[in-house]
Amino acid sequence: MRIKDFPKEIQPYLIPKEQGELIYRCLGCNKEFGIEKLLYTCPDCGQVLLIYDINFQRHKKIPGEIWHKIFDYRKMLTISSVKGIYRYHEFIGPILPLDAIVYLGEGNTPMIEANAPLKEKVGIRFFFKNDGQNPSASFKDRGMASALSYIHFLIQKGRISDVLAICASTGDTSASAALYAAYLKPHIKSVVLLPHKKVTPQQLSQPLGSGAIVFEIPGVFDDCMKVVESLSENYNVALLNSKNAWRILGQESYSYEIAQDFEYEMTDKVIVLPIGNAGNLSAVMSGFIKFHETGIINALPKIIGVQSDHADPVYRYYRNPDPKKREFIPVTVKPSVAQAAMIGNPVSMPRIIHLVDRYNQRAKKQNVFFVQVNEQSIMDWELIANRNGHIACTHGGESLAGLVAAIRQGILNPNDIAILDSTAHTIKFSGFQDMYFENRFPTDFEISPNPELINSTVYIHPNDLTKVPQPGKPLTGDDFKLFVRRVSDEISSYLKLKKNH
Predict the structure, then answer these.
(1) Measured distance CA(395)–CA(310) in Å, rounded
(2) b or e along 23-56 (b: 16 or more beta carbons within 10 Å of the residue's beta carbon)?
(3) Cα–Cα nearest to 336, from 384, 280, 304, 376
(4) Using CA atoms, how far apart are residues 450 and 421, in angstroms rounded to an integer?
């Protein structure tokens, strides 16, 4: 749709302009730093950073209802740079020119409402937001589009060149980083570190297919992260994990899309998401705070962070109701089907503490909650969801298990509407489904299949058939007719079908 066809009062706002002044702010010593160079931690105290727009107040001069029209009409534009997460350019990367933005189809992921049987079983109306329908099949593309767009901007300005982008990963980050880096060849090369034998074959194939250099090392994700941190501190490399504050900005788009899909009416809404490295939870809180401060949304939704009892440092921290007595202690993780959340020392924990306080203060009540679930419930609820028409990954199963736990604990009201984060596509974790159906989970997963949820193929080969088709050797004539009739008979008998009259 062309600009001249839009309402005149909206036309000046439709094409985002370069504006604002972004800075890094340390969550430890509160010092501020310019964004001319890539920073991941505070040069003075080593704490993690958040990016702030020091001219953010300008957004409050535009009434909330005008912002609604800006985003709603902007959704109709055919300009690729604002088709994805940069529809919300003013809130994510206002300093970026449109020609620096990298768009590979990320964002705009669908929200699918649970069907009647599943809502009745769970006890509340809820939706899955399918972030597995991003380009690399996970939510990581939101943050990666932001981080790589900023790096692209620095390359265009001649501030950096021959970038070696590096990340540690449980699978999804590496797939996303490798994909976006490949798009910016030859200016960027991608290197990823994975824990040996701790990534699904589907996830491993993605960075390899995108041409990244892939290192597998002993240990778990936390060990890979320490190596990547060491490399980023001592060598000229670009870190693409969520320690990179630009990743957080991009992932805020998840909350913006939810607000827009509900026409900015967030009363009685609940967002449920797995925690992992805590970047996504940080981003969702930050995004809703920004929209609430500017009057774009009318209320802050409840937020529920979910962790498996096999990797639950954030849940343990908030288990103590007295903030003065809370102490963050990293945990040793155990095997989890929610593989991307199998992180015992999340790098964004300081962001979580900072943003939970801000979120609750702005809501004027406790509005962020944490629940713990077990591995059995994660797998069972993932399978139940997918038997009701969803494509939830194991982390989507973790979200649904967390929703059920929150309902049982009285955190939700009967009229609440929940939005669950399914962070990746179910195909990435299909190996866990196979292990469930075949009852071959190692004991340390603590999962025993429910016979009612097991499914397997049924092989049909009538015993009286001596001739059956084979690849390159088709049947013909009466032999083929007999094959079709006998196989049809066996299937109809199995299904107890009634003949047409």
Answers:
(1) 13
(2) ebbbbeeeeeeebeebbbbbeeeeebbbbbbeeb
(3) 376
(4) 24
The whole-angstrom separation of Cα 322 and Cα 48 is 24
Per residue in 157-199, pLDDT (tens digit) is 999 989 999 998 888 899 999 999 999 999 999 999 999 988 8
Q: Look at residue 206 and give its three-state secondary structure.
A: helix
> What span, in angstroms and rounded, lies between the C-alpha atoms of 167 and 228?
6
* pLDDT tens digits for range 369-390: 999 999 999 999 999 999 999 9
Tell me the whole-structure pTM to 2 decimals.
0.94
Beta carbons within 8 Å of 450's beta carbon, 6+ residues apart: 380
The H helix count followed by the E strand count for the chain is 17, 13
All domains in the chain, ordered by first residue: 111-135+252-453 (3.40.50.1100), 139-247 (3.40.50.1100), 458-501 (no CATH)
Q: What is the pLDDT of residue 233?
A: 85
Cα 444–Cα 446–Cα 449 angle in degrees, nearest 5:
130
